[in-house]
User: What shape does this take?
Amino acid sequence: MGSSMTHPRVTKAIFPVGGLGTRFLPATKAIPKEMLPVLDKPLIQYAVEEALASGIEEIIFVTGKGKTAIEDHFDRAFELETLLARSNPKALAALKKLQLPPGSVAYVRQQEPLGLGHAIWCARHLVRDEPFAVLLADDFILSERPPLAQLLEQHAQFGGHWATVMSVPPSDTSRYGILDIASQDGAIIKVKGLVEKPLPEKAPSTTAIVGRYILSPTIFPHLEAKISSTPTGEIQITDAIAASFATDPFYGLVFEGDRFDCGTLPGMFEATVAAARLRADLAGSLFTQDGMSVRNSFTR
Ligand code: UTP
Assistant: This one.
């Protein structure tokens, strides 16, 4: 399968944050969905920390209307810092961790929310001719090893397009991009087709793409073609990936970790409980019906 030559290191990551977050209204009326917190940290910060921990050096946010809170979150806050320097050095240290090196962050505006594929295409001039990562902050993943690092390790060996994938209940296929599987070798799935949000009876499998991609820049002409041939409706990244199958292999990686759909209320609620179980300062405040303290379930 694939070649064993080393492929170019991935140093750029796109964070599409231009969506409307309508499934989380009214919370997302004035606050970007990606700024909703799991415990005391916004979703977007978890995703950025995952990218940095995986070796990413350049952060590209594709933002939209009403998303300026994200820019402020990753910026300096001089008044607050001056105040905390006097009153709360611990909180100041937490704030300082948020500062990304100057010049490592770029923002590009998606003027209209025309879909994930369109958002990625909006970053084409910043990505240019390198393979790049895409992280969807509302796909929140708890794992021992960052899921992006798991993907990057495979990409370095095999090249091509990659996405993290997981098994979903048959009734949920209409919420995901679903794989048509050519073959599977352990956690690596070679994909021969993709269907965006199929009804259960039309789904080629129950293996779904979730929230992390590594894409080759060869995707951009395919996105361009979709954009010029789609006068209305959303531009899906899955359609562009499917259109590139003739030249670019596409692999799914069954990643290690627990994923929560934090674009929905049940997903956010479960993520909050799961994250609390991992926190020494909070685990004691979670109890089962028997009065037993709830313990972490994902670490083995
Ligand atoms: P979603 O499918 O979750 O859409 O997008 P959404 O608009 O954010 O939320 P709902 O469906 O209205 O509740 C998946 C990811 O793609 C980004 C979103 O920000 C999210 O991270 N996205 C989506 C864009 O950046 N631009 C778009 O036009 C659409």
Notes: The mean pLDDT is 91. The radius of gyration is 20 Å.
